[in-house]
Amino acid sequence: MTRRELHPLIIRAARGELPAWARVRTGRLTHLASVAELLSRWAAELGLDEGDRLRWVAAGWLHDSLRDEVPESLAAAAPEYPIQVQHGPAAAERLGAEGVDDRELLDAIRFHSLGNSGFGALGRYLYLADYLEPGRPFSPVENAAMRAALPHEPDAVLRRICALRIQEVLSRGRPLRPETVAFWNELQENGAVDSRGDI
Ligand SMILES: [Fe+2]
Ligand SMILES: [Fe+2]
User: Which end of the chain is more exposed for a tag (fewer CB within 10 A), N or C?
Assistant: First the structure.
């Protein structure tokens, strides 16, 4: 399947229609819609074609599609990951089993909580949108300032959000995953010219 031939599941997700196997409580649907809306706007502002814009919107809807799955099923689907982040890998596995073979989209969903040094543009912007969608209750002033820099100046915002997520993991006394450390290191290398990170 080429990128132009979008999987029917992806086309439906881009319309906000989740698969029957999705497990998302009603109160979380506004988060999914808001992430998808932000990705749609950014894709358009970046000049992506309609096929890619639909992929970005679908990723917004699908990234938390197993967020409210029962813990036993998540643990069975993604046993190598801690419980807090199993829903991403579990959703990617399920999408793959359904025949979705869009590697960039699958990795964006798999690592939307952890970050990943191999992210394509979709992975990076989903990581940003998941954190910055305007329905999030925390740090509204700083988050609005970060959104204002997007989509055209993502590097400093990525470093800031990755740092905040790492601080959150450390504050809870949890170990850092190697994917997160590799993503952080990659962001520092990319940002060597502009290392202010002060947005
Ligand atoms: Fe998530
Ligand atoms: Fe999310």
Answer: N
